[in-house]
Amino acid sequence: EGDFNFYEPQYRVGKENRDFYLDVIRGLAQVPKRLPSKYFYDKNGDRLFQEIMASPDYYLTRCEMEIFTCQAKEIIDSLSAGDLDFELIELGPGNCAKSIHLLRALVAANASFNYVPIDISENVISGLQSFLPGNVPELRFKGLAGDYFDTLAFHCLLPATRRVVMCLGANIGNMTVAESNQFCKQLRGYLQPGDQCIIGFDLVKHPAVIRRAYDDRAGVTREFNLNLLKRINRELEADFRIDRFDHYCSYDPLTGAARSYLVCLSDMVVNIAGTDIPFQKDECIWTEISQKYSKDQIRQMATNSGFIHTSEFLDSRSWFMDAVWTA
Ligand code: AVJ
């Protein structure tokens, strides 16, 4: 008592926002400052991300959509090898726009599978709960809201038939190369020999194309990035002046890392649930990494993490890869 504890909010931050609060305070205490990208996805962020996916500058969704519409049958063949009895887990399903092609094809093939979408956004899970029964009748599914890893780790303690884990949309790109290697190793640890995963990777390509995707001309990505501050204002009683921040993104062709930042436009002090945090003019908060991979890097990552690189599916321009790995 008495002394101010950095990690105890002075104002009441609801229990449901405690992890969010701690992650924000810890991230902004770092030099350089950073915020975790997983907090982009509140109700507003989900809507903005849908808009990004529809944006002509954001090619990723269309590329992967092409793969799933044109090659659903081939994907299923490489997944099942004749055995259509498995549990299909999807990490970060969003609106299911890509996986729905697979789900429909599996239902049509009389597969006896269970679909388990896992998403950080409650909003996404409740959306699927109302969307799926009408759109993929006969689908058996159980949505789980939570952090990928905690939820998956817990879920994989349950006995199941064969498991297939999908992580589409280049979601894995939100981790650094080192983190995704770690992630794939851990994922392998949860699986049994014969289990599989399908992972969507955005491939390296002309740097200008990549940069455009994260700084679209309609300014939706800018809104999406700034929404993180709005969410902090709303949920953590903070007083960020949104108009004093700008969106900036970089792409480094030497490392394949696209990074997004929020640039502070003037010196200021921001209060977050009672904690004052100083910002300097031109200081950047790193909010996101979207890592791009070469085909060889992907094949290497499979081996590094104990998987067999079983098949790869590419769009017509070779801008995106969905890789099937077998444990
Ligand atoms: C959902 C992580 C795949 O990094 O491309 C889109 C998120 N951020 N525009 C990506 C995002 C800015 C997206 N992922």
Automatic annotation (TrEMBL):
Transmembrane feature ranges: none
Gene3D superfamilies recorded: Vaccinia Virus protein VP39
SUPFAM superfamilies assigned to the protein according to its UniProt record, in alphabetical order: S-adenosyl-L-methionine-dependent methyltransferases
All residue ranges annotated as the Histidine-specific methyltransferase SAM-dependent domain in the record: 23-325
Protein name: L-histidine N(Alpha)-methyltransferase
Keyword Transferase: yes
Pfam families assigned: Methyltransf_33 (PF10017)
InterPro entries tied to this protein: EgtD_Methyltrsf_superfamily, MeTrfase_dom, MeTrfase_EgtD-like, SAM-dependent_MTases_sf
Organism: Chitinophaga chungangae
